[in-house]
Amino acid sequence: KRPFEGSVVVAWPCTRATEACLRACPAACTCSSVEQGCSVRCDRAGLLRIPAEFPCEAASIDLDRNGLRILGERAFGTLPSLRHLSLRHNNLSFITPGAFKGLPLLAELRLAHNSELRYLHARTFAALGRLRLLDLTACSLFSVPERLLAELPALRELAAFDNLFRRVPDALRGLANLTHAHLERGRIEAVASSSLLGLRCLRSLSLQANRVRAVHAGAFGDCGALEHLLLNDNLLAELPAAAFCGLRHLRTLNLGGNALGRVARTWFSDLSELELLYLDRNSITFVEEGAFQNLSGLLALHLNGNQLMVLSWAAFQPGFFLGRLFLFRNPWRCDCHLEWLRDWMEGSGRVAHVPCASPASVAGLDLSHVVFERSLDGLCVDPEELHFTTYSPLPSPEPVATTVSRFSSLLSKLLAPRAPVEEVANTTWGLANTKLSDSLPSCGVGVLGCKVTFVFLFFLLPHLGGHGKET
Q: Can you tell me which residues the record assigns to a coiled coil (predicted)?
């Protein structure tokens, strides 16, 4: 009996917790007992205000997709066990300072997709000292009060993309425990040297799809722990020489979809642990020697979608590039300067799809199919730049009238009245394929018409000759 009695004693607290969870469940919600307490689901319930009471044991409350507009002070009462609170896709326009008081253990707060929530008071998140994740996605925020996040010393992750920020919020500075910051798809125009001060634990920063035109020197100076930096799809045309200096733990750097015209050797000098480098969809025409020399651990380099005609092996020396290289959608000139790349493609199998744009003799071929000839002294010979001429087997178009053709036509008209119809036809046809002298009629003695014709032609020829020069 002892094992049976013991099992009843163990199950009794669970039963009591389930009963308490169901007993205090709001009418429009569903509640269930979970390992950490009580889960309350009020999503899509058509609520226009916060329920007056929640189970005291509530560990998670979901109020997504309702019609909530305002959160008053202590909007949720006192819930000592609450760890997860979600208010996404509502119509929140104002949150009273102190609305989240009474939630001492709250670790995740999701306020995403409240498009009317355009302003937050500096004391909005007061008393949330345990908060680790804050989601402010798509809230139409123009700015964040500088002291707003200072009340959140434990904050690890901030999601604030799809907002209207024009600069990196000053509120981020000094968040010593922040590890992830999502600021993509906004209107941020620059990363200033003071934007990221004090973020010594930051491991992931996303600024993609903003309007960033400038990254100031030293902007990432305090971010030595950064592992993933996304700056793709912005308006960057240039970077400072030591743009990423000190980021020795960086593993992913995405600079794709910008307006960069060159790749400098100083940009990546400190990135010895970099694994993924995206430089695709830029306007790059030149890569400096040694630009990738320290990237010996690189798994993939994306240079596709640029304006590269040549890529020197010196860009990778003295390091040794081991990863995959993506080079498609570039106007490659497949001459001897790319012979090393052709050999590498054959030997490693880690480079593919390098279509040639020139010289003409290999245009349209993939570089892997180009055969480089050798001179007598063993040097590489560039493929020929062919000059094609057009040949058509069809009859040529009617030529432009010349002096001879005009003269022949005039002569035919002069002689036509004195010849039978059949002779005129034959004479006109023959003029196109004979010399001028052969085209003149045979003039016998005493033929007055012929003499008059010659006199006329004597005065006419100089005029026709001058006109022919102009044509």
A: none
Provide the 3-class DSSP secondary structure of residue 358.
strand
pTM confidence score? 0.78
Q: Residue 105 corresponds to which tokens in the numbers above? A: 């253990």
Residues 6+ apart with CB under 8 A from 330: 303, 304, 305, 306, 307, 308, 309, 354
Cβ(241)–Cβ(216) under 8 Å? no
What tokens does 182 get?
Answer: 């999502």
For strands 30-34 and 37-41, give the pairing: antiparallel
In degrees and rounded to multiples of 5, residue 52 shows phi and psi of: -70, -25
**What are 317-348's pLDDT values in tens digits?**
766 666 899 999 999 999 999 999 999 888 87
Average pLDDT value for residue range 344-356: 87
Beta strand extents in 130-225 (DSSP E only): 133-135, 157-159, 180-182, 190-191, 204-206, 214-215
Mean pLDDT of 11-16: 52
The CATH class given to the 29-164 domain equals: alpha beta
Which two three-digit tokens encode residue 229? Answer: 């930096």
Among residues 143, 158, 152, the alpha carbon closest in space to that of 205 is found at 158
CA distance 403 to 141: 81
Query: Does an H or E element contain 221, and which?
Result: none
Of 201, 183, 194, 234, give the one whose Cα is nearest residue 217.
Answer: 194
* pLDDT of 17: 63
The residue extents of the domains of the chain are 29-164
